Amino acid sequence: MSEMNADQKIEHIRGLIALAKRWDLFFTILGMLSLMVGLLTFIVLFVDMAIQGVPRLSVDFFTSFPSRKAEDAGILSAWVGTVLVMLLTALAAVPLGVAAGVYLEEYAPKNWITDIIEINISNLAGIPSIVYGLLALGLFVYYFGFGQSILSAGLTLALLILPVIIVATREAIRAIPQMIREGSYACGATNWQTVKDHILPYSLAGILTGVIIGMARAIGETAPIITIGALTFIAFLPTAPFQGDPPAGLFDWIFAPFTVMPIQMFNWTSRPEAAFTENAAAAGFVLVFMTLAMNGLAIYVRYRLRKNIKW
Amino acid sequence: MQIPAGVEPGVEGVALKADVRDLDFYYGAFHALKKVSMPIHDHRVTALIGPSGCGKSTLLRCFNRMHDLYPGNRYAGGGIVLHPDNTNLLSPDVDPIEVRMRISMVFQKPNPFPKSIFENVAYSLRVRGMSNKSELDDRVESALKGAALWNEVSDRLTELGANLSGGQQQRLCIARALASDPEIILFDEPTSALDPIATASIEELIIELKEKVTILIVTHNMQQAARISDYTAYMYIGEMVEFGITDQIFIKPQKKATEDYITGRFG
């Protein structure tokens, strides 16, 4: 190389760069193709579902019970069931998950027992959801005697998303700089004062995001709900508190039989008539819309809460 | 060199606020402080200097038991006695929270909480159970005045602390440390993240503060130690090499090692 003159050197360098840049081009194309596989699949599925289902959407569709006649059938019991099950899931999973996450980050001694617990929480997130269904069938439905109820379903899904919430809580807490913690302790704060006044408020955005992502996963779960015995055809709503005869108690609805959106869809797709397939597409559209709305909410909440947090 | 007010070299009789006695400290197996002893004089500024890793920050963080937050840290002998009550701050019987209620701290990087300016200062008072609004108002105002920040923030107390400039943030942290009326304030290289103008205002403030409180400051900057401190301790790899009145340390150090460091021959 030492015999090259200046022009030859520049030529040589340019040749090397051109050769190396080919890999940039190659990877750009490969990356875009990979992205398209996922994105296009979703778009095709969603558009196909929308074309089939959207014409079926009407007020009646939301306010009617399922029916043997496809054109009369609606998703009233399904969406009410989904909303109630989600409510119980959140009520059970959020306090448990956040408390466990805070304990692991701020209180637990760092030793091998904590390490084992941490590994197992990650493992829990990977367990197939039907296994949770089987556990819940034995534990909630029979052993605790909750029956095939909204309560059993809510608790089952809560177990399912607990690891997601714990992991999200821990990551949100870990994002808080150590100097903020030290600042609080240096003021004379106790562990609990530090958690209550600093750790929880500053990690709220991350925790809520985790909660909503967990809920968005739970809303589409079918297998564990079928396993605990949700009905596939249900033409009544749980009795509202203080209604009916004799009047229901405040919490009687949690023991009511129920169905949820994915089960309603499953039921309709297994019917031979094409009209029911359209119903399933419409219900699927509503379900995807609910999930997207929850994710949208997560993004909005995160944006709002983080605006006031700067380190 | 200008002699800091209130100190006549060689004159005895300044009361002691605390003294460190034969203190040994370990990070796990690492022996970070070796039989360190030094006095802390009441209402004076004492500076800790020395090269990186010499143990000066480690010693400072013993004073408010910050080491207790992390596993593996161990006070292995000796102690820090706080006067006039002769409490050994490092005794296992003394609750670290009690120590931190008496001795507050200002950190290397300004670390205001992501709360309003008012709430940042009020936090030291809230952890002490104070919730009366007018009392909090008064104490926050006087702390912000004490930290020479009141004039700049009095009309925007509800804004986020993080919206202030770096120097203002550090003075906010000083106000937070001052609000609880501590006996000692620890400063851990408080100007290392600041520009020269902000540094000058913090230095001026520290000199004023010794009217109210005893000050212990770690600094990387020898000129800073010379400018603001009454007493200086030079540390090297976990040992106290020399302690003395600042002017004597800088003009006529007793030990060759101190002289080498101060004259910039090493470090």
Distance between the termini of chain B: 22 Å
At the third CATH level, what is the topology name of chain B?
A: Rossmann fold
Order of helices and strands of chain B: EEEHEEHEHHHHEHEHEEHH
Shape of chain A: globular
Largest interface: A-B, 23 and 26 residues
Q: Assign the CATH class of the largest domain in chain A.
A: Mainly Alpha
Domains of chain B, number: 1
What is the makeup of the main sheet of chain B? 6 strands, mixed
SSE succession of chain A: HHHHHHHHHHH
Could you give me the name of the CATH homologous superfamily of the largest domain in chain A? MetI-like
The unreliable regions of chain A are: none
From the helix content, strand content and strand pairing of chain B, which structural class follows?
A: alpha/beta
In CATH, the architecture of the largest domain in chain A is Orthogonal Bundle
Q: Percent of residues of chain A in beta strands?
A: under 5%
Tally of individual helices of chain B: 10
CATH superfamily annotation of chain B? P-loop containing nucleotide triphosphate hydrolases
Number of helices of chain A: 11
Q: How does CATH name the architecture of chain B? A: 3-Layer(aba) Sandwich
Describe this structure as you would to a colleague:
The complex is a heterodimer of chains A (311) and B (267). By secondary structure, chain A is an all-alpha fold. Chain A folds into 2 domains: 49 residues; 249 residues, Orthogonal Bundle (MetI-like fold). Helices cover 72% and strands 0% of the residues of chain A. Chain A contains 11 helices and no strands. In chain A, helix 8 runs antiparallel to helix 11 and helix 10 runs antiparallel to helix 11. The radius of gyration of chain A is 26 Å and the shape is globular. The N and C termini of chain A lie far apart (52 Å). The model of chain A has no long low-confidence stretch (mean pLDDT 90). Chain B has 267 residues and is α/β, with parallel strands linked by helices. Chain B has one domain: P-loop containing nucleotide triphosphate hydrolases (Rossmann fold, 3-Layer(aba) Sandwich), CATH 3.40.50. Chain B has 10 helices and 10 strands. Chain B has a 6-stranded mixed β-sheet, sandwiched between helices. Chain B has a 4-stranded antiparallel β-sheet with strand order 2-1-4-5, with helices on one face. Chain B starts with 15 loop residues before the first strand and ends in a 5-residue tail after the last helix. At the A-B interface, helix 7 and helix 8 of A face helix 2, helix 3 and helix 6 of B.
